[in-house]
Design brief:
The chain has 5 helices and 15 strands. By secondary structure, it is mainly beta.
Length: 217
């Protein structure tokens, strides 16, 4: 099966799958192309694991993010100069019938912890998946390339129509193949900024059992 690019009447690009001698291949859209999201999101597997880092001048964040069905979790270990431990943050949410419920690490109001309308950062995949299930998925995103990996960046305001505007508008950019958030795009700066992984991250299709077992511990 291969995926061919089709241009819709609105000018967005979709991926059409056809069987060709049993070989899987697809022609990738170009950087900056507007692409239809529905087929991309529906093709995502229900599990992934991302391991990477985010470097700052005085410390490094070691980031592990995973999905297992409707549970999404991220652990961020902050390490200072000389590998000095500076703390670990564990956050996790689950998609429920009523919305997105925090199951670990919520620092918001009680109502937001039960049904969060403005989930952002490395857990934003849950908000995107939930919007697809409720018929509220934005129609399009923009293709980008982050350290050699194809990502689709989705307008933050379109993902969170009921939320207050973000203080700094950053669009989550997800791996096209798995949906894992790998970075954030600033339209104002025309660059990846904020919660964006450094080169060298890895993506696998198996959830991280160790991270999931830490929830509620």
């Amino acid at each position: 099966m291969n995926r061919r690019l089709l241009v819709t009447a609105s000018g967005s690009i979709v991926l059409a799958s056809v069987l060709t001698a049993g070989v899987v291949a697809w022609a990738a859209p170009s950087e900056g192309d507007t692409v239809a999201l529905a087929d991309i999101v529906s093709s995502w597997p229900d599990s992934y694991q991302v391991t990477g880092t985010k470097s700052e001048p005085l410390y490094t964040e070691r980031i592990l993010a995973t999905r297992d069905s409707d549970t999404f979790a991220v652990r961020i270990e902050v390490v200072g100069q000389g590998d000095a431990a500076m703390g670990t943050q564990l956050s996790a949410v689950s998609i429920t019938e009523s919305g997105i419920e925090w199951i670990d690490g919520c620092t918001k109001s009680a109502s937001a912890c039960t049904d969060d309308p403005e989930l952002r950062g490395f857990l934003a995949t849950a908000a995107i998946v939930q919007s697809a299930r409720t018929g509220a998925l934005p129609e399009t995103g923009v293709m980008r390339v982050l350290h050699g990996t194809d990502v689709v960046c989705i307008d933050d305001a379109a993902i969170h129509p009921a939320a207050s505007p973000a203080l700094v508008a950053l669009d989550p950019c997800v791996d096209v193949e798995t949906g894992a958030v790998l970075g954030h795009w600033s339209a104002a700066s025309a660059a990846f900024v904020g919660a964006t992984l450094a080169p060298g991250f890895t993506i696998t299709g198996t959830p991280n059992a160790s991270l999931l077992s830490d929830l509620h511990r």
